[in-house]
Amino acid sequence: MYAWAPVDVPALPPAGDDVPDRLRLLDTATGESVAVDPDAKQARMYVCGITPYDATHLGHANTYLAFDLVGRVWRDLGLKVTYTQNVTDVDDPLLERAQETGQEWEELAEDQTELFRRDMEDLRVIPPDHYVGAVESIPSVVDLIEQLDDAGAVYQIDDDEHPDWYFRTATAPGFGDVSHLDREQMLSVFADNGGDPERPGKQDPLDALLWRFARAGEPSWGSVLGAGRPGWHIECTAIALEHLGKAFDVQGGGSDLKFPHHEMCAAQAILATGAPLARAFVHSGMVALDGEKMSKSKGNLELVSRLRHQGADPMAIRLALLDHHYRSDWEWTPDQLERANERLERWRGMLNNGSAMSATSTIAEMRRALRDDLDAPAALRAVDGWVGGSLAVGGDDPAAIEEMARAIDALLGIRL
Ligand code: 5CA
Ligand code: ZN
Q1: Three-class secondary structure of residue 380 per DSSP
Q2: Residue 263: which H helix or E strand, with range?
Q3: Mean pLDDT score, 376-393
Q4: Which residues surround ligand 2, an ion (CB under 5 A)?
Q5: Is the CB of 234 under 6 A from ligand 1?
Q6: Predicted local distance difference test score (pLDDT) of residue 2
Q7: What distance, in Å, lies between the first and last C-alpha atoms of the chain?
Q8: Phi and psi for 81 in degrees, rounded to 5?
Q9: Ligand 1 test: best mutation among 28, 57, 60, 234, most atoms within 8 Å of CB?
Q10: What is the dihedral of CA 398, 401, 404, 405, to 10 degrees?
Q11: DSSP class of residue 294?
Q12: What is the pTM assigned to this prediction?
């Protein structure tokens, strides 16, 4: 159901000694820049996927482009990459939207997942190796909850009708080590980010829903826990552990997922496996529109698909997003697309120019920028410099144009 077209990534000549041979990223958990390459040849990354109840907006696209760059840099370092992404294909916002519109929830999820997949293809995002739905993962979710139960970290709410299962958060080892929020801050963020601090019967307002008992009019699945459906955090913990194993290299998502989502996933994984979920927790910044974080729930959106229907070149959309550092919070304005178009035209013009300066030092500069916490804006400026210099002084390196086009494609995902 969730096929996603492969993207061709051209091979580049190996980097020289003037380029560091590791990718460093800012790890939210330690607050430090860390080398995220594994010792083995196989790099493993999990990125939190969409909840498919509305179309892909530029905030989502920005987040998936950031982690697309991680995969590209790893490949350029000669690593094999295993990339897993989930799709939260059953959850409250999705069921609520289906209720409002009268559409079947399964159909809504499938339609929006399909649209997301097409948007990602347009933007030349390398597909995950495992693109996994919550619904198809219910057996792993149930197994993991049982494991947590064995560890004494699980309880049922004292409620005859809906004895939902909860994760005993406060006593979990390492709880707080991802987001570093104090309890006060956690409580204030929790409700805004999908938590239910007010639910009567919880032992601690910060405890996280693991398994929601069936309610009238809601989908549910039979299990040893009773008929119900998965909570949100346990979905990602189960999918990540099943498809990547423990202590994988990068857990990624937007900064809105630091707490509670990634904090809960991390605590659940440590309890269940005795090992950290991931070696680094990496978060992309939030894209805003009209002064507020772009969000499906608020409706202040600019959509990849809308820009495409208006005739935007997907490579210009990609360039416009890459012109912001992945960790910065920024606001979308239409003039950014115009500027990206002009840049794309300049770069494409260079392709037809026939003569250029050597590309070697520019490609080294792009690699240095990207390997140092994914500084895509600096990599774009390096290409600008090469294009401008080539046009100004001309050049006599006939292979340089092709080499540069390959590097722009492999490292930045821009097909000229
Ligand atoms: N299904 C969950 C993750 S398991 C979820 O958060 N879905 S989502 O559709 O709301 O968001 C999908 C991804 O886009 C997440 O990684 C989220 O952090 C990121 N995201 C959401 N809004 C923005 C935004 N305005 N700017 C940047 N990234 C965003
Ligand atoms: Zn997630």
Answers
A1: helix
A2: helix 263-273
A3: 95
A4: 48, 236
A5: no
A6: 60
A7: 31
A8: -120, 130
A9: 60
A10: -140
A11: -
A12: 0.97
User: Residue 266's pLDDT is what?
Assistant: 98
| Average pLDDT in the chain | 96
What is the number of alpha carbons within 13 Å of residue 250 lying toward its C-beta? 34
49 ligand 1 Cβ < 6 A? yes
Quick check: CB of 282 below 6 Å from ligand 1?
no
Number of other CB atoms surrounding residue 373 within 10 Å: 15
Q: Is the CB of 370 under 6 A from ligand 1?
A: no
Return the best residue to mutate from 45, 58, 63, 92 for the ligand 1 pocket (most ligand atoms within 8 A of CB): 63
* Tokens 């346990």 found at: 234
Q: Give DSSP secondary structure letters for 174-223.
A: TTTTTT---HHHHHHHHTTTT--TT-TT-SSTT-EEEEEEP-TTS--B--
Q: Is the CB of 251 under 6 A from ligand 1?
A: no
b/e burial code for range 101-111 (CB count within 10 A of at least 16 → b): eeeebeebbbe
Determine whether the shortest distance from the Cβ of 254 to ligand 1 is under 6 A.
Answer: yes
Edge to edge, the sheet with strand 330-331 lists 292-293, 287-289, 330-331
Q: What burial letters (b/e) apply to 170-198, b meaning 16+ CB within 10 Å?
A: eebeebbbbbebeeeebeebbeeebbbee
Find the 16 Cα to ligand 1 centroid distance in Å. 37
Closest CA to 306 of 51, 61, 53: 61
* Contact (CB, 8 A) for 210 and 188: no
For residue 21, the SS3 value is coil
Model confidence at 39, pLDDT cuts 50, 70, 90, reads confident
> Which residue among 96, 256, 277 has the greatest number of ligand 1 atoms within 8 angstroms of its CB, and so is best to mutate?
256
Digit-coded pLDDT (tens) for 358-379? 999 999 999 999 999 999 999 9
Residue 229 bridge partners (DSSP): 212
Distance CA 393, CA 294 (A): 43
Among residues 18, 97, 100, the alpha carbon closest in space to that of 51 is found at 97
